Amino acid sequence: MKIHSFLALTACAALVAAGPALAQGSKKNSVTLAMVLEPPGMDPTMAPAAAIGEIVHYNVLEGLTKINVDGSVTPLLAESWTMDPDGKSYTFKLKKGVKFQDGEAFDASDVKFSFERAKDDKSTNKAKKAVFDNIRRIDAPDAHTVILTLDNADPNFLFRMGENTAVILDPKSAAGTATKPVGTGPFTFDDWKKGTSVTLKKWAGFRDAKAVKMERVTFRFINDPAARVAALLAGDIDGVPRLDAPQAVKQLQADKRFDVVIGNTAGKGIVAINNKKKPFDDLRVRRAVMHAIDRKAFIDGVLEGLGKPIGSHFAPTDAGYVDLTGATPYDPEKAKALLKEAGVATPLNVTLTLPPPQYARKGGEVVAAQLAKVGIVAKIENVEWAQWLGGTFKGNFDLTIINHVEPLDYMQYTNTGYYWGYDNKAFRDLTAKFAATGNAKDRAKLFADIQKQIAADQVNAFVFNPAQVAVARKGLKGLWASSPIFANDMAAVSWQ
């Protein structure tokens, strides 16, 4: 998730000055990066905000596997693994001699505890339904072996084990993770200045501490894009892993002080629709919303062209992706006809709730103008991130704009309690059949069918897959150029 609308330059200067000048690239052992959003807590296993993982994942907290910048999966806390031929049982051999940052030893009992906690009926882990409910048994035959038995084979299971929802916590410190996470990673959680920054310190007890170059990592929260660019230009920060200020890209590319790399993300930018609220419980009205939106105009006007159009809740980087944008092209006249067919009197007054990211705030103005052309009058309601999570994300909205950054998160459409309120047994049956199918050809067809079903039901208006823009001062190496997941692997970052 990401940013805010532009303020006047004086306001930008005030915002930049409000925080201490933390960038210390000249010391060659510390770094300050800007983030758009401040997370509500630091426990990625119990809260949905992607910003949590940007700070703690791979830095403080680790899982069995690691997802690399190219999307490949390699061992992390697991030393190796084997899979049964039916794809329903994984045996992980754990690394020996690993400790948590409070001195507790890491072993199989911690994996068992963490995954049982994620499976628990009271769990708020966002991967509970898609991943942990599929784990039938968790066995720990010895301290360094974990056997996970699945109900259904999952070809993405090793990838799932590398997401921040699957990090391993220790029973003694797990309850305090939201405010002071304790993990096995290369950095310890040092300080959280609410509203300003989070600081991590290198952990001398890390198993490969010599390879970690940074002694101190600071994440500054600057949710206004102009202020973030101003902080870069002023030297107050060393980089922005996910810039989300597309208007500034050309300026920064021309500035010899910076390296600018444009890569890919797994993001799905959508106009989310409350399927439970009239008149959006009518498929024709949801399709009218989609036909009213000009994806190209949105991408060009809001993202400066740094994105790709999508037609379902899938990113072009997903293996087996099907381009479905042609099924619902920009067609205002079709939108008007669908509203009339559905018996909707125009003007139809609705509320468009917008969180802070620029793609939402600026994009909301574009979407509202496009909707108005077909008779849908969208009253814009700007909310802060906490309000969005506490209200919109709980189903209190008409329309909202949001970028879902988690990869392969289509299983959220099987969750009838999820904020957009989609309830279709046929879709759930389709995903169950996909999960239970081992034949590669059959799986490919079913995966395409899953994409088509979401699009056919027009659960949401699917608009854009954003590119990633990573900006760093010259000499700062190791920031991810792409985001298969939202993470900042700071052990790989150094000054050269």
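^ that was protein a. below is b, sequence first then the tokens
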Amino acid sequence: MVGAEFTTDMLDLQLDSNSRFYEAPVQMKAANGVFILDDFGRQKMAPQEMLNRWIVPFERGTDFLTLHNGMKFEIPFDQVSIFCTNLRPMDLVDEAFLRRIRHKVMIPHATEAEFREILRRVCVTQGIDYKEDVTDYLLDKYYRKTARALAGSHPRDIIDQIIDLSRFLKQPALFTAATVDAAAANYFVEM
């Protein structure tokens, strides 16, 4: 899994001159597994640059790597590649690239029931008492009244904000209207 730190150099062998060993590129490390590129489109390089490097491997199922002496060799390109983004795919790549990415899955925002369940599970995982009335308060004040979408990551992030504040104040982490207000004030940014 890589994210915004991903560069095209990571797709090539990297020779460590001290040990005289190569570090495998990310696609080789993902061989027969899953390669996840999170935040696709937010890397330092253009998405087209990265995908240009992978056009042939996507189509043929093999990739070519180059040793420091210029010698090239072929390796299997056998992985499930997952590109995650919240940007419009057509703003990142053209139709030809989208054809090469065979499966595209839109993950919609959570329903209210899903959001509640995610929040409940996050509270259980963090050892915080989940309260339905506080969830109602959170949903009403910060989602319904603002027409904010119910992102599946928000429950984790809000609870993390509550935990961070409680650690700073050296108090137990509690899921209350007051801690939700403090977390929301720090987490949500109005634009």
